[in-house]
Amino acid sequence: MTTPSPGDELRAAVSARRDLGPDFEDAIVESFLDKMGKEVDRRVDERLASVRPSHTDRRSEGMRLALAIVSMSLGTILSIVTIAVSYSLFALVIIWGAIAIVNGVFNNPGGGGPRPAK
Asked: Nearest 10 degrees: CA dihedral of 41, 47, 53, 56?
């Protein structure tokens, strides 16, 4: 089934206005605008579906991976040092809690991480 063009829709609306008279003008205009709004939405959806992830999106994935690797490495090293020096469970909780908070804030859409491309 083919979708009528906006020109065809407009011609049909004008023809209906002539046939039905001015009493139905508001309903005809509202119907036409509703159809055009749906057509605009359909076209926008098609364009959004065809857009590929931008370079910024790929870069932010790399940044997340780098943060995860650095966090795990730093956490492991600090844990080993803490165990070797004082074996403080409290210090280990603080270290890994801080790492979890930094990663959570960075990866949270409302947090301090990279913003999605527009």
From this structure: -80
